[in-house]
Structures are given as C-alpha cells and as structure tokens.
Design a protein that fits this description.
heterotrimer, A mainly alpha, B mainly alpha, C alpha/beta, A: mainly alpha, two-stranded antiparallel sheet, 14 helices, about 0% strand, B: mainly alpha, 2 strands, about 70% helix
Chain lengths: ~350, ~300, ~425
C-alpha cells in the first residue's frame, strides 16, 4: 500500500508538470467547457469545491484526522460572507476576509475540543459538532434565514487599487475564482512540501514517536484543523457568491460525507492532487448520469463501495499502479496525478 | 410540580426508544470498531420488510397472499417483528462481507463503505417501495390511548418503551451471560488470541454485524408507527444514535443506555417548558458532557482512538 | 460568451445604458437566430424534486406538467413549435436547485423553468432565473415569502400560501368550536409566517391565543407538545407543521385519538402526503386548492385523462399538487400563444393580471394572477376527513369554499418588490 509519505520531497518548487497541467486546464476551461457539453457555472462550482477539498485534505490525508463535519465551515464561511454584504458593507475583500475569519474562529474552537482525540472518536466528535452548527443555522432564522437560507447575496465588484472589475456574471466570476484557487493551491503546495508538511505526515504515521521527537502534537493538530477550516471558509465565501445565497444544507452530515467521499475516491490519501480528481469525477459524473437517471446516487454509491473495497487509494492510487506497470513506457498520461516514481 | 410528572414519564419512555435506536449501533462500534453509517438504512429496511410482511407482499396477488391477509393482524404483526429483523440481518451481513477488505486498514474505510451502503440502500428502497409515505398497521390491542391522571397517553408508545426495555435486557444478557457474548467481547479486546483459541473470527464478525443490523431493523419496525415510514427515515435515526454514543462513551453498553435516557429526559422536559429548544437540548447535553468528560459518561480508553 | 468584462468602472458607467441589454444578450445570441426558425422546439426545464423529503410530491407535480405538455403537443404544439422537456432532480436541496437551474438555462437552453415543492429550492431557482430573465413557475411551494419578500419579476406562484389557508380556516373554526386558540408552530420561516397570519386573524375575530408551542423542524416525537396541549385544553389548535414532521404528528394524534377534541386546524394538506394512509390519520380541518371530488364541470373528464395517462401509478386520482403542476404549465403555454412570441417580457406581461375563469380552473371562483405579487389568487377549500367515502380514494369531505378576495394575503402585497422590466434580462426562448 502506498501513502502520501511516498510523495518525494521536491524541495518546494511548485513548478511540477502536474501543477502546470492543472493551471493550464483551469485557465483554459472557459474556452472548452461549453463545446464539450458542460457550462460555466459548473466550472465555478468545481473550482470552489476543489479549493474546499484541498484544504480539507490537509486534515484528512496529510495529518490523518478524519473529519466528518467539515461542511460546517464551508457553511459558516458562506453565511459570514452574506451577512457582511447585507449588514456591513458590500465589499468583496471584506466579505472574503470575514468568511475566512469566521470559519477560522469556529475551527479554532472546535479544534480545541477535538484535537486530542484520535481515530473514530475524532470522527464522531466532528460529526457531532458539525450537527451543532447545522442545527444552529436552521434554528437562528432571524440571522440566517433558517431553512429558506440567506438570499440575495450580491456578487460585489473586484477592487484592485484604482481598478474595479465587475464579476457579477458567471463568465467573469469564474476567472476570479480560478485565480483565487491557483494562489491557494500554490500556498498549500508550499505548506505540505515544507518541513511542516513532513511533520504532519509524521504525526499521521506515528503520533507517539512524533511527540517523543519533541513536536507539540496537540498544537500542530489544532493548527491544521484551524487552517483547514480557514480554507473551507474561503471556499464558503466564494460559494455564497456563486449561489448568491447561503443555505444550511451544505452543513448537513450528508454533504460533509460527500466531501470525504470525493477526496477519498480521488485518492487524497496518496496524492496531493487526489482531491482534485475526486471533485472532478464527482461533479462530472453527477452532471452526466443525473441527466439520464433519477437513481444516479444508487450507481454512484455502488461505484464508491467498490472503490473502497478494491482500491481505497482512489483514482490517484490506480493511476500510480498503472504508471508503475508501464514504467518503461513513455509517460504520456494526461491525468495530473503526482505520484512518486518507485514508491 | 404535579404538572411535571407526566413529562418525566414521557421523557423516560422517549429515552427507552432512543436506547433501542442506539443499541445496534453501539454494539457494532464497540465490537467491530466500525461506525456503521448504514445503521439508519438498516433501520428503514427492517421497517419496510416488516411492512411487506404485514401486507403479504411476498406472496403477490396469489391465493396464498389472500389467505395471509385473512389472518389476524396480531399474528402478522408478530411475524413481521421476527421476519423484518432477520432480513435486515441478512442485509447487514452483506454489508459486513463488503467490509472485509477494509479490516486491518484505517478504520475510516469502514465508515466510508457504510456511507456508500447507506446511499445504495436508500435508493433501493425508493425503487422497490416508492417515494411515498407508508403506514405500518399495528394490532388494535396495542393501538389507541388510555387515560392516566386525567391525561391521554398512547398505548403504543408504552408498548414500544416496554419492548425496548426487554430488548436492552436481552442484548445485555446475551453479551454478559452467554459464551457467545464472552467470545464477542474477547474478539473486541484481542482478536489474535480469539483466533489462536480456534474461533473463526470472520464468522464471529459476520454474526455480530448481523446481530447489530437485526436490532436496527427491529427498532425500525417498532418506531415507524410513531415516526412514519419513508425512504429517508434512516436520517432521523443516525443523528440521535451518534449523539447518544458520544455522550455515553464509545463501546460502553450501559453508557449508551444511560445517555439515551438522559437525552430522552432532556428532550421530553424541554419539550414541555421550552419546546423550541427541545432538539437543541440534545446538542447542548453533548457539549456539556464532552466538555467535562471527553470520553463520554462511561467511556474508557479504547483501541478506536488509534 | 463575452470575456471582455474586465473593464474599468468609469468606462462601464457610460456604457451601462447602452450595454444594459446587449451585455446580457451574450449567451442568448445564437438562440435568437434559432428562434426565427419555427421548427425549433420550445424547451421547458422541469425542476421538481425526485429525491429527499419532497420526492413524492415532486413526482406528482411533474406528472401534472407532463400531462399539460402532452395535451399541447397533441394539439400541434405552441406557436407551431413542439414542446420538449428536460428534467433534473433538485434533490430537495437548495444548492442543487441553483446548479440545476444554471444547467437547464445555460446548457440545455431551456427558456422556461417549472416546478417546486420546497421553498428553499424554489428560492434558489428563482434567483438564477431572475438573473437570466428566464420565466419560472413555482407550482407547489406555499410559503408566504414566495410571493412576498422573495418575489421576482420572472417568478409566478401557483399554490395558495399559508396566509390564504389560515384566512379560510380560522374564522370558520372559531365560530364552530370556540375562541381559545393554541398555536402549534414549526420553528422555521414558513411556520412563523403562517402563525403570524393566524394570530392576526384570531385577534381580528375577537378570539384569544392562549399559548404558542414552537416545535423545532425535524421533531419526530410530539408527545411532550401533545401532553402540554391537553394540560392547557384549548378549543382550537391551529397547527402549522410541515413535511415529515406533520406526518409524525398525524400518526401520534391518531394514536391518542385526540383529533376531534380539541378542534385541529391544519394549514394545508398535500394530497401525495396523505394518499393511501388510514383515514384516522386525517384529523381536523385543513386547506386545499382542489379536490378530485369537486362537483364541477370538467373534473370527471380531467380525472379520466389522468387515469388514462398514468394507468400504472399507485395514486389513482389526481390531487392538489398534480393540479397545480398541470394548471401552471397549461397557463404558461396559453400565455405564449396569447403573446404570439416567446419573448420573455411579452409573456410576463400576458401573465400579469391574467384572469382565469372558474370553468377553466375547475374551481368555484375565477382566479387571477396578481400583477403585483405574481401569486395566483384562487379559491381556497376547507376539507376534513370523509366519513362517508364513495370509495377508497374519496378521503376528503369539502366543507367550505372561499372566494379569492376573502382570503387574500395582504402582507405579501406589502413585502413584495418586483424588479423592473428594464432590470430583467430579455430574450426569446
């Protein structure tokens, strides 16, 4: 079995072929999405969920804390963004900053409760806290709009120094989301390939040993939880813009389960790029199968079960195995999997 | 003060029902170290199998079906209580077989597999029984209401609570007083040793999962006349079961029962005095308990934390 | 698709007036060319729930739309064009509703969207629809906010709302049963809106609200609330409990046998939620917009058409959800014919204020699409469980019918601010 630790330390230069391919796909997407039968809004949503999934994988794949309530922080980010626009000021940067801040604070508090937990206990606790937030979002309807959601959230103009851009249309919003995603991905890449990233993996592999070496394991776990929540908050802020509203549903156990499903199917446990693959597969499969049949969840659920049974390393693991088998053949895989040579 | 009495009684019956919901869940978590997210789906499946038994769906519109429907409802109900959980156990065993490749790996895989299974079971129910609300008929003897202290109570509710008590006792007896229970418990502590002693561990796991699933299915049959029966009814079950396990302490039998009673009381009493908060009270109870005792009321250190 | 939106605000300002319409024409340019060819089908996107809490009602809603469309196609289509549909499951989840609406508009090029049961999903869809100028028919979501605070120029609401039903029910039950009213309210937006309307009516008719019990959404055990109701002992319980909660409440009230004393007023009872359940599950009085047993011309034929088209459906007669889906779709197609165009603004103008005769609606009174709230003002019926059913389908006994003007929701008129025509993007479907 392979794991994330097998990813060779590259010394931190993010200029890998996979990164190049990803950036290329991301930045050319508006030109080929429609010809291949997809649509611009789907592109925005996929980009946002990739951001969410990558931040989540810091916790899930790298440090090995299996949170099952991460949708809560996405939701908190979305509500914070919307409330800021409606109650304080219509401002893009202000809204996103508040979204990140709110999710960070929530993550820090919950992280304080759960960071000394491990394994299934940790999962149970995150589910329970996720439920608390979800329930609160429905209950506090004078603030959140209850189950109707917070409606009419504007897509504010992008202000960069003296320049102002209108990003209210799907076409332009996509560019903004794509650039935010690209910056975040670079930051995350640096983070996991820095010594810090290796400490995360050390904790996942053997927490006791990491502690004896002298790392403050609790603090690092807490920090990772908080950072991961912060990325979820950013994604949530963007999601509120995309949807022009914030709904409690994204905070439910079901939705939190789906993000875990996406990350795992893609291979978040074995590759930095796993979550990207998982999100792409989920959204595209759902869009295509969903157009044909109403029972698409049955087929997706079955596919997922088989995946967990035969190849829990996910798509990235599969690609890795295939590439190893054809190690001699020229590497012409077009999938942005960044699995190591010779694990 | 006298006004409070019926609410305390009500809270206790509610707590017993919650305990019945959590029972199969805690058994599987405690022994198998798997968080069975399909618990709610097995609950629903048991109830639907029970429904099919009472309605004689198995026989179609043959003469046998007509004969079956002519039998008294009490008899059909009792057979539903037996057949429903057995079939749910069968479904649970299929899930356990699917789970096998995940043993010895991160416990997360078990949780994920059962999440997938929950999606699949719910969709299958939708395909077979349709999306609409169904009604599980109960015998007249336990239906209807009775008067107590000038207030009307539901007979069925008390029947269900009594049934829950019996079920809790039976499971406890099985675990503590029979050799099977001893092996199961040993299996959760030291599976190597159990294997060395010549027990077939994989058969043991199959049985435990089937047992847990059958209790889930039983809870489904008992509770659906109160909660209603629809394909996504399982969602109503998983959340309280989770909260109860965390509050009670993972893997602790009496912890779960105690937590269920506490949750029932808090929901029942807030339901009388601050009803808007009755659902929230579960979560507040959770935060309070976990804030003070991070392993839950009766939880102890377990292998699950690794 | 225009990619040149990265313009400075200063430039935008001057260009805004000129560009207001043309900027949005972007995605629709190719449509306009197609629209000239009359053989291009009219595409309608169906946004009904096929999974989640409202899957069952969503299916009924969709059958109504499909029957209206099949009938129109049999007559040769609309404006000589065939009608095509595309359905995607909205999963009773607002976020899915947004995405489905985006896809149906952008990729499937649907010019119209129809369908909703859940108000959250309806709100999500209507925001996307308004941004694109696509006409959206909310067929079955009955939250008063739908045609109030969350109304839109492109959205039309076809169901009666909580206030309409409360108005029809409260006066009637207070005069029959007594003046001490207890409110049993689901603690969320629809519940609160409905309870507020009920409270105002109780005050207006000289009654007294003795207490309000708020029940959180997701409640499955009502025993605490039911005990408390017995302790307070009101004359009338006005319940605004929806969805799965209502089903649980119904079963528990039936088990206790307290469905007739006190008198229960249930806001609305959707046919797919009760069809096939035992009769004692139907308690108290409740509202509906239509019943298949109404003794009006056309109803029998309508039921016969339903049974012919859906011969293998377990629901043997159409209910209010089917009716709303059917009526809404038929009126949309009629409005397109009247406008003699598929221009969205022209169709909206045809719909606004449109009168529909009682015969056409198979109701007791004529109905009108309110030009200011876009909600259909229609007859509201009060019903109760039928103690003398003709057959197993005949579950309701209609008690009264109310004229639309007597049950009008004044609150939504105040709350609704429709976008101007100029702010609504225009296009030809």
């Amino acid at each position: 079995m392979i794991s994330l630790s097998d990813v060779s330390a590259r010394g931190g230069s993010p200029m890998t072929p996979a990164m190049g391919l990803f950036a290329l796909l991301l930045l050319t997407a508006p030109f080929w999405l429609e010809p291949i039968g997809l649509y611009q809004y789907l592109g925005i949503e996929i980009a946002i969920w990739i951001l969410f999934a990558l931040g989540f994988n810091l916790l899930f794949g790298y440090i090995g804390l299996h949170s099952f309530g991460h949708g809560a922080y996405l939701g908190i980010g979305a509500y914070a963004f919307g409330l800021f626009q409606q109650e304080v000021a219509v401002s893009l940067w202000g809204g996103l900053a508040v979204a990140i801040l709110a999710a960070t604070i929530a993550g820090a508090i919950v992280g304080g409760f759960v960071s000394h937990r491990r394994g299934i206990y940790f999962a149970l606790m995150t589910i329970a806290f996720g439920q608390v937030f979800w329930f609160a979002a429905i209950k506090l309807h004078s603030i959140t709009g209850g189950e109707d959601g917070l409606l009419g959230i504007p897509r504010p103009d992008l202000v960069l120094g003296p320049f102002e851009f209108d990003i209210s249309k799907n076409g332009t919003l996509y560019w903004f989301v794509a650039i935010i995603l690209l910056i975040s991905i670079l930051a995350l890449w640096r983070l996991v390939n820095a010594p810090f990233g290796r400490v995360l993996q050390a904790i996942r592999q053997n927490e006791t040993r990491a502690r004896f070496i002298g790392y403050n394991v609790w603090l690092i776990k807490w920090l990772t939880f908080t950072v991961s929540a912060a990325f979820a908050g950013l994604a949530g802020g963007l999601f509120a813009m995309a949807q022009e509203s914030a709904y409690p549903d994204v905070m439910s156990l079901h939705q939190s389960g789906l993000i875990v499903m996406m990350v795992l199917v893609g291979g978040g446990l074995v590759s930095f790029w796993g979550p990207v693959l998982g999100v792409l597969l989920y959204f595209i499969a759902r869009d295509i199968i969903g157009g044909f049949t109403e029972t698409w969840l049955l087929w997706f659920g079955l596919m997922f079960m088989i995946m967990v049974m035969v190849r829990p390393e996910g798509l990235s693991g599969l690609i890795h195995v295939v590439r190893q088998r054809f190690a001699q053949a020229p590497q012409n895989s077009i999938t942005p999997a960044d699995t190591p040579e010779g694990a | 003060m006298m006004e409070l009495v019926p609410h305390i009684i009500n809270g206790l019956t509610l707590g017993l029902l919650f305990a019945l919901i959590a029972l199969g869940f805690t058994l599987i978590v405690g022994v198998m170290e798997v968080i069975n997210l399909a618990h709610g789906s097995l609950f629903a499946l048991g109830a639907y199998f029970g429904l099919a038994t009472i309605g004689g769906d198995w026989f179609g519109s043959t003469g046998l079906g007509a004969w079956w429907l002519s039998l008294p409802i009490g008899m059909r109900y009792v057979s539903a209580i037996i057949i429903g959980p057995l079939l749910a156990a069968g479904a649970g065993m299929i899930i356990e077989i699917c789970l096998r490749p995940t043993y010895g790996k991160v416990p997360l895989y078990g949780l994920l597999l059962t999440f997938g299974a929950a999606l699949v079971v719910e969709e299958v129910i939708r395909l077979v029984w349709g999306t609409g609300e169904q009604n599980l008929t109960v015998p007249q003897a336990i239906n209807g209401a009775f008067l107590m202290g000038g207030l009307i109570f539901s007979k069925y509710k008390f029947f269900a609570a009594g049934f829950a008590m019996v079920a809790i006792g039976a499971v406890w007896f099985f675990l503590e007083r029979t050799p099977y229970g001893a092996i199961i418990k040993a299996g959760s502590h030291d599976s190597e040793m159990v294997r060395a002693l010549g027990y077939d561990l994989s058969k043991l796991r199959l049985l435990v999962f089937g047992f847990g699933a059958s209790i889930a299915g039983l809870a489904g049959i008992i509770l659906s006349p109160i909660w209603g029966l629809r394909p996504h009814v399982g969602l109503d079950v998983v959340i309280p079961a989770f909260l109860i396990i965390v509050i009670g302490g993972v893997g602790s039998f009496w912890g779960a029962v105690l937590a269920a009673l506490l949750v029932g009381m808090s929901v029942g009493i807030t339901g009388a005095y601050a009803p808007a908060w009755s659902m929230m009270s579960m979560y507040l109870l959770l935060i309070a308990v976990v804030g003070v005792r991070s392993r839950g009321l009766l939880g102890h250190k377990s292998a699950l934390e690794n | 698709m225009s990619k040149s939106n990265l313009t400075r605000r200063a430039l935008l300002g001057s260009a805004a007036v000129a560009g207001g319409l043309s900027a949005f024409a972007g995605p629709w340019k190719h449509n306009r060319v197609w629209a000239q060819a009359t053989d291009k089908p009219i595409k309608i996107g169906i946004t009904s729930d096929a999974s989640g809490q409202y899957a069952n009602s969503g299916a009924s809603d969709r059958r109504g739309m499909m029957m209206a469309i099949a009938e129109a196609n049999d007559r040769g289509g609309v404006l000589g064009r065939k009608i095509e549909t595309m359905h995607i499951d909205t999963e009773t989840t607002p976020a899915t509703g947004s995405r489905v609406a985006e896809r149906l508009i952008a990729r499937e090029e649907c010019g119209f969207l129809i369908g909703a049961v859940s108000s959250g999903v309806a709100n999500a869809i209507s925001q996307v629809a308004q941004r694109n100028g696509v006409i959206y028919f909310n067929t079955n979501s009955s939250s008063p906010t739908e045609s109030g605070k969350n109304c839109h120029r492109v959205k039309f609401v076809w169901d009666g709302n909580g206030t309409n039903f409360a108005k029809a029910a409260i006066r009637n039950s207070m005069s029959s049963y007594g003046e001490k009213v207890l409110l049993l309210t689901n603690d969320y937006v629809w519940g609160h809106d409905t309870a507020r309307a009920t409270r105002a009516l109780v005050d207006q008719y000289g009654g007294e609200v003795v207490d309000e019990i708020l029940v959180p959404q997701g409640t499955r055990d009502f025993s605490a609330a039911l005990l408390k109701i017995q302790q307070i002992n009101p004359d009338v319980v006005a319940a605004a409990i929806g969805g799965d909660d209502q089903i649980a409440l119904r079963q528990q009230v039936a088990q206790l046998g307290i469905g007739s004393k006190p008198a229960w007023v249930n806001n609305q009872q959707d046919w797919p939620d009760v069809y096939g359940l035992p009769m004692d599950n139907l308690f108290g009085v409740f509202g509906t917009t239509w019943y298949y047993g109404l003794d009006l011309p056309g109803v029998k034929e309508f039921v016969a058409r339903y049974q012919a088209m859906y011969s293998d459906t377990s629901m043997r007669v159409p209910g209010n959800v089917f009716y709303n889906g059917y009526m809404a779709t038929r009126e949309l197609l009629n409005a397109i014919e009247r406008a003699d165009s598929t221009n969205n603004i022209a169709i909206i103008k045809q719909l606004e204020g449109h009168m529909m005769s009682a015969e056409d609606r198979m109701q007791h009174h004529a109905a009108q699409i309110d030009p200011n709230t876009h909600q259909v003002q229609q007859s509201i019926y009060l019903a109760t469980a039928n103690d003398e059913p003709r057959d197993e389908n005949d579950m309701f006994k209609i008690l009264t019918q109310s004229d639309p003007k007597d049950v009008r929701d004044e609150g939504s008129l105040e709350a609704c601010k429709l976008e101007s025509y100029e702010d609504t993007p225009t296009f030809d479907a």
